[in-house]
Amino acid sequence: MQRLSLTLRQDNVPLDLISLIKTILAATKEISFRVSQAHMSGLMGSTLDENIQGEIQKKLDVVANELFKDILLESGFVKAISSEEEDTSVAGNAVGKYIVSFDPLDGSSNIDINSLIGTIFSIHEAPEHMDANNPDMFKQSGDKQVCLGYVLYGPATMLVMTTGSGTHFYVLDRTHGGYLLVHRNVKIPEDTQEFAINMSNQRFWQEPMQNYIGDLIAGEAGVRDKNFNMRWIAAMVGDIHRVLSRGGIFTYPTDSKNPNQPHKLRLMYEANPMSFLIEQAGGLAMTTTGRIMDIEPTSIHQRVEVIMGSKNEVETCLSYFK
Ligand code: AFP
């Protein structure tokens, strides 16, 4: 099995970007270790604080965020970082070539039940003309990401990453401490019989989404003429990993549950990096009005509706909105 650094060299990734990727991966190895030790080191449960998103932070969220942030800022490779857990961006090296957005622990509600969680990261080039303190540096579309991925802390710690030359799966080999390539150029089947959505929000969805999901549930007895299976991990990293591994459609649609917040998922920390991985694997990543990665962000904590996965199924879903 090939080591990660060899894959990166084969894909002609610039040396300074390889150094940054290695820095990020060093942080994920440390987080993976901390997650495995959390029960024994008093890191289960919540803090009394809320993050900028108004969500109660878990102790591990805070630890993972501090770790990731410190390692990146100390590296000198980054001009600034932006985290789901920080109020605004944090300045790094004024001449750093890159900026990094990340969700240090996606799926926090799974922490206390020892279920799937992960770290998501996204790298853009830093605009040279902007000050390191300026959060506007992060207002770049998903298309401009130069490297992104996630690390899934599951039965195996897995890295799924792309630098624009295909989506690849790696697994952390604890004997030598590095990530090894296990699947190059993952491809998502175009058709699927599996969907992922939080069904408890059904009554809050727009009518076209109600109709679409209704037809999936009707299965063979309905217009789709085939049965569908449903899965919901409550961690986008886990649900997208399944879609990348065997196909499926994943959606967190617009809803009216909280009128001030029609969307749940974050554009920069969740939707954009996952969209790039899905598209590189031959799938589609859309909102009901266009491609997710075409969106020009207006704020760093922006939220967005998400419909992604197997190409033909995403197109079928979108046809209900026409
Ligand atoms: P947290 O990381 O704040 O727990 O949120 C996870 C998430 O943003 C995403 O990973 C899941 O797909 C989604 O929320 C789960 O949402 P529900 O709470 O509706 O299940």
Automatic annotation (TrEMBL):
GO molecular function, one term: fructose 1,6-bisphosphate 1-phosphatase activity
UniProt cofactor(s): Mg(2+)
Protein name: Fructose-1,6-bisphosphatase class 1
Annotated ranges, domain Fructose-1-6-bisphosphatase class 1 C-terminal: 188-320
Binding residues annotated for substrate, in chain numbering: 106-109, 198, 264
E.C. number(s) listed in UniProt: 3.1.3.11
Family that this chain belongs to: Belongs to the FBPase class 1 family.
Co-factor note (free text): Binds 2 magnesium ions per subunit.
All copies of domain Fructose-1-6-bisphosphatase class I N-terminal, residue ranges: 15-183
Binding site for Mg(2+) 2: 103, 106, 270
Domain of life: Bacteria
Species for this entry: Colwellia maritima
PANTHER family: FRUCTOSE-1,6-BISPHOSPHATASE-RELATED, SEDOHEPTULOSE-1,7-BISPHOSPHATASE, CHLOROPLASTIC
